[in-house]
Specification:
Elements lengths: L22 H5 L9 E2 L2 E2 L1 E2 L2 E2 L8 E5 L2 E4 L18 H6 L3 H7 L1 H4 L11 H23 L9 H10 L5 H7 L1 H11 L7 H9 L3 E4 L5 H8 L4 E5 L22 E3 L2 H7 L4 E5 L7 H9 L4 E6 L9 H10 E8 L9 E7 L28 H6 L4 E5 L2 E5 L1 H6 L2 H8 L7 H10 L17
Parallel strand pairs: 7-8, 7-10, 8-9, 10-11
Antiparallel strand pairs: 1-2, 3-4, 5-6, 11-13, 12-13, 14-15
The protein binds zinc ion (ZN) (2 copies).
């Protein structure tokens, strides 16, 4: 079972750490508080750093010193010391000295981050951000794309061109940049090679096209493609994945993927980054599709894209015939994959079951059903959004004592009284509620 840290929405509350041992005794350790670091990364519990000695929340108190957060004080969701660096803020800091003063965490080694930012690296990050901002501003005003244009790839290259020391990468805030660019273009970054492969399978039908960037590049190359989205982004309609301040790059027709596939049986289906929690965007489209070739851009197996059922369908009934790696953001493995339909169709027999009682649980679920958890709760379980993270005794024994103490005192811990309430809500003979066991997803 994954050891995921809980990340509650909004600010974390520093609770009263009266655990099995006296909290006050624990706080009175004689050594200076320091943040707990594990495998080179600071350990966060409920979104705050914890003291390596006692597990209480800590915050920077000045250069190279840390202090316990006073008990009962509400912590901001994003500390000024730990929030990502924004360009607007960076620009206001005209000297390296000013940068060091404002972003102490980026220049100090005692946090255990895998970098400290030197003056040269700070200048390099600023140079890249400056160029990036100028080009991004220009790209936002483009209306049409030519056959050789690919502003998304150009912007990505400015940010990620080697050498990219971790400190520069951190200042560039690649995670934030990715969201910014994905909202304007698409999640995956097209390349000439990928577009050439798509062109060979035209005419194409792109479902879940978002801003229509891939379709626009294909059309600029003379490829026959039509694009659909359930909620085409425009000035009036809100698409939760894309921005409102410009029109899509190509014409997007409104419609579900399944309906679009039914309407255009003569076109090759192209799916780019279907969300992993939405069966309709990937699985339903693939099942409705009658063609022999499907082109899918995203991650293989149970990655960040495509539902669990979609990946099972690909494994059972389709054969991968071509793979083109795409430019990749950190921790992602975007790939363009061409699949051919197998001659004989196999039915889905794989079902997800509770590890313990073997009853069926929601497709894609991992772990135990609610009933097993209620009957035999683990000593340590936390609520993390819609999921439950159970820590088996081996995992609890293996974690640093400070982390264990912090998790045990977390306001997101599922306590014995909560478990009793869960059990009493289930009247005898009532249908089982769907379980929501944890999944280690990004
Ligand atoms: Zn401490
Ligand atoms: Zn069970």
């Amino acid at each position: 079972m994954s050891q995921m840290l809980s990340r509650p929405a909004g600010g974390a509350f520093v609770g009263d750490y009266a655990g099995r041992d006296s909290a006050s005794a624990k706080r009175d350790h004689s050594i200076q508080p320091r943040p707990l670091v594990s495998a080179g990364r600071p350990v966060l519990v409920d979104r705050h750093l914890i003291c390596a000695a006692c597990g209480n929340a800590v915050e920077p108190a000045g250069p190279d010193t840390w202090r316990h957060v006073p008990r009962g004080r509400r912590l901001a969701g994003r500390s000024k010391w730990l929030s990502p660096l924004t360009l607007a803020e960076l620009r206001k800091l005209e000297t390296y000295e000013a940068f060091k003063a404002r972003f102490a965490t980026a220049v100090r080694s005692d946090l255990g981050l895998p970098f400290t930012t030197t003056e040269d690296q700070w200048r390099e990050a600023l140079r890249r951000l400056d160029l990036y901002e100028t080009r991004l501003h220009a790209a936002r005003r483009w209306r049409t794309l030519g056959a050789v244009d690919n502003p998304y790839l150009d912007l990505f290259t400015i940010l990620t061109a080697a050498p990219l020391p971790p400190a520069v990468s951190e200042i560039l805030d690649l995670r934030g940049r990715r969201r910014e660019l994905a909202a304007l273009f698409s999640w995956a970054i097209p390349t000439n090679e990928a577009l050439d492969v798509l062109a060979k399978h035209a005419p194409l039908l792109e479902c879940g096209a978002g801003m229509g960037y891939w379709s626009a590049l294909l059309q600029a190359r003379g490829v026959d493609v039509i694009a659909y989205d359930l909620a085409p982004p425009n000035a009036r309609a809100v698409n939760r994945f894309h921005i409102r301040d410009r029109k899509p790059w190509s014409r997007i027709r409104r419609g579900s993927s399944e309906a679009a596939v039914g309407r255009h049986p003569d076109r090759t289906l192209f799916l780019c980054w279907p969300p992993y929690e939405d069966d309709d965007a990937s699985y339903a489209a693939l099942r409705a599709y009658r063609g022999e070739i499907v082109i899918y851009v995203g991650e293989r197996h149970d990655g960040a894209t495509g539902s669990v059922r979609f990946h099972r369908e690909l494994r059972l009934n389709w054969t991968l015939t071509q793979e083109i790696p795409l430019p990749r953001w950190p921790r992602l493995s975007d790939t363009l994959m061409v699949y051919r339909r197998n001659v004989v169709r196999q039915p889905h027999r794989e079902r997800d079951r509770c590890f313990e009682c073997q009853r069926f649980i929601r497709t894609g679920g991992i772990g135990r059903c609610d009933r097993c958890f209620e009957n035999r709760p683990t000593a340590l379980a936390l609520r993390a959004g819609p999921h439950r993270v159970e820590y088996p005794p081996e995992a609890v024994d293996a974690m640093p004592p400070a982390q264990r103490r912090a998790l045990e005192a977390s306001p997101n811990r599922i306590s014995a009284s909560v478990i009793r309430r869960m059990a009493s809500r289930r009247s005898p003979g009532s249908p089982r509620r769907p379980s929501s066991p944890c999944r280690g997803r990004r």
